[in-house]
């Protein structure tokens, strides 16, 4: 019965996709919207939620998805160079990226699937409040008495590019900004070094690996004051829904397959009711809240 509920959504996705794409390519043998194999480049800050989505998708259908976590810059380069044709990003394609695809007569479809947040974390000795302006000062290379430095997982990460855009800079400053190789290292460093602030996708804190979970007791997730706001806002499903958290970012599946393959099936699944329910339960904000069924009983049954 579960498959019968999801299939109409997937079929609708096929029709929309066919109308929106001018160029169609041959479908690889054995691949349909629900069968075959496909590789998907994933912004590594979003890996936990996509692992959940793929686990449920593969439990219901014969399609097999190979998730390839990369930095945002590597994901973009990979999909532009055609090393993979499906990608999960924490932003839409830029005008320049769309122009490149158009020049190759490729017309990728972008499906918004939810909203994530960039979380700022610090040692328990730190204040639990932080001003976004202080963060941007450090990104601009300015000395700030309230903040020793920012720590990222990767200088090519989407979290870095997001803050660079807010700070209106083209290059990362030589002082005050540091990077490691993994999200676990960011959490560990922030937990052990008062005054340093870690920058990490909220998804990793809501669905932590065992290694990250071991450090969580020593950190606080900080409430952030926007550039124009008067209050400090904690990153949560509620604040994302109310659009009050200043470091929110929309999530997209980019499908540049050019044919009716697993890219359509995966995007339709994640954007559909079951996929949106997975996002809701993860603590992130789905693009649409799944319906809840209420059963009204005529009376209360008494146990004998």
Automatic annotation (TrEMBL):
InterPro entries according to UniProt = PBP_domain, Phosphate_ABC_transporter
UniProt keyword annotation of Signal present: yes
Q: Which domain of life is it from?
A: Bacteria
Q: Where is the PBP domain?
A: 36-272
Q: Which SUPFAM superfamilies match?
A: Periplasmic binding protein-like II
**Pfam families (UniProt xref):** PBP_like_2
Q: Which UniProt keywords apply?
A: Signal
Matching Gene3D superfamilies: Periplasmic binding protein-like II
Q: What is this protein called?
A: Substrate-binding domain-containing protein
Please name the source species: Flavobacterium agri
